[in-house]
Amino acid sequence: MKINSGYIVPSCLFNLVFLLFSNSYCSAWGFFAHKKINQFAIYTLPPPLSGFYKDNVQYLIQQSVAPDKRRYLIPSEGPRHYIDLDSYDLFSLPIFPLCLDTVKKWYSDEEISSFGILPWNLMKETDKLYWAFYHQDWSRVLRTSAELGHYLADATVPLHTTSNYNGQFTNQYGIHGLWETSIPETYFDHWFLTTGPASYLEDPNQAIMNLIVNTNSLVDSVLEMEMRADSICLGRKYGSKTRSGRTISSYSERFIKIYYKQLDGMVQRQMKVAIKILGSIWYTCWVKAGQPALPDGWKVQKEGKSRGNSPSKAIQGRDHE
Questions:
Q1: In angstroms, rounded to a whole number, what is the distance separating the alpha carbons of residues 209 and 90?
Q2: What is the C-alpha to C-alpha distance for residues 66 and 305, in angstroms, rounded to an integer?
Q3: CA distances from 125 to 59, 120, 222, 281 (A)
Q4: DSSP tag of 301
Q5: Which of 28, 41, 114, 231 has its CA at a distance of 20 to 30 angstroms from the CA of residue 148?
Q6: Cβ atoms 299, 55 nearer than 8 A
Q7: Closest Cα partner for 42 from 279, 306, 212, 226?
């Protein structure tokens, strides 16, 4: 599908969509799915690594959403969650950049901030985890593991790899939250998310770039299946639901069901991809650090409440988030 960046949305439609989605979740994958991905990744690990992570499962779950909370405070946090591959022209460069410093040779800081730095941020976080294991800094191991899980999960969401991140160029406003929040919340209990054991990655950086490219290959299907569902739904696309005691506008249950069927398991498959690669990177960093002995029964101290929880602050990021 060729994105028409010059598409003009009628003002009445824009107003309708604003009302429908202004109260939606402020998170990639939704807080619910991010927490589940971190939790299920633990099950891919071999002992003794699995025991160490299981001892700290609640921390790993809760800390999985910390990067989203930081976007209420730190403007530079937003670009770490996405990359617009259609805005960059990475494959035409003399070398394919596996380092952000290399990217800066061809793109300005302003362009990089606009287009996103997700893969290079993932590489940086992976390196941080390796060194945390190497120095046996267990608090940092767990904090980095949890937040790395957030960014890796983002990298499995197709709309985190395109400038048309919320369907704004194709008259599909709201599709981001529909794909990554409404569907997981509706169908999670019916999913089988066992992925098999974590794998050792010879080249984690290349694995990250492969992940980004594979995720981006799904963008056209994400958009086209929504259009097909809309044509099937025959005007019953929107409805309302109750969340936290409030009635809010949302996609109708019928439309979510039709779109989910059109996607043919895509969201579940991508969640499994996130779980498997997260466990594999955790495992790989431990092995590359020399498989240091893990402290038996050690638990991270509970950290203070993030100031980023404040709902009074505007989120620093894209409008779907």
A1: 11
A2: 10
A3: 18, 9, 28, 10
A4: P
A5: 114
A6: yes
A7: 279
Separation between Cα atoms, residue 189 and residue 191, nearest integer Å = 6
Q: Confirm if 61 and 38 have CB atoms less than 8 A apart.
A: yes
Work out the average pLDDT over 83-107. Answer: 86
CB 268 within 8 A of CB 187: yes
Rg (CA), the chain: 20
Q: Which two tokens mark 197?
A: 């054991």
Q: Does domain 25-173+194-217+267-290 have CATH number 3.40.1710.10?
A: no
Report how far residue 284's alpha carbon sits from residue 199's, in angstroms, rounded to the nearest whole number.
8
Cβ contacts of 83 within 8 Å, gap of 6 or more: 115, 116, 117, 118, 119, 160, 161, 212
> How many residues in total does the chain contain?
321
For tokens 């299981």, name the residue: 54
